[in-house]
User: Fold this.
Amino acid sequence: DRVRALAGLCITELDGEFAGITGSGYSPGRVTLIMKGGSRLEKAVTVPTGTRSTPMGADKIKEKFLSCAGPVIGPDEAALLYKDLEGLGARGSLDDLWPRLGTD
Assistant:
């Protein structure tokens, strides 16, 4: 409920400075918070983490995978799936993996 209330206070709009970059393979973004007293907090990211310029390390990749997959399939299953995917290149077959990914 608190997140929904906060979302109701948010406005999204195209940032004119980044409009020319959009579609170039990069996803720049800016977040600006305007506080009740009028002060502003701003953070811009022109080259997001995970690009060739700013690659994610193995620990960040795992953290992101677990944070995305955990809520969907459960943290234990997400950890097991991550381990299986880490060894993907050494697998002789993917037959046992497909059912765990929700495909037939």
